Amino acid sequence: MVGGRISRLSVRDVRFPTSLGGHGSDAMHMDPDYSAAYVVLETDAEDGLRGHGITFTLGRGTEVVVCAVNALAHHVLNKDLADIVGDFRGFYRQLTSDGQLRWIGPEKGVVHLATAAILNAVWDLWAKQEGKPLWKLLVDMDPRTLLSCIDFRYITDVLTEEEAYEILQEGQVGKKERGPWEEQTVDKHRVSTEEQMLMHGYPAYTTSCAWLGYSDDTLKKLCTEALKGGWTRFKVKVGADLQDDIRRCRLIRNMIGPEKTLMMDANQRWDVPEAVEWMAKLAEFRPLWIEEPTSPDDILGHATISKALIPLGIGVATGEQCHNRVMFKQLLQAKALQFLQIDSCRLGSVNENLSVLLMAKKFEIPVCPHAGGVGLCELVQHLILFDFISVSASLTNRMCEYVDHLHEHFKYPVTIKNASYMPPKEAGYSTEMKEESIKKHQYPDGEVWKKLLTAQGN
Question: Does the reported pTM lie above 0.70?
Answer without folding.
Answer: yes
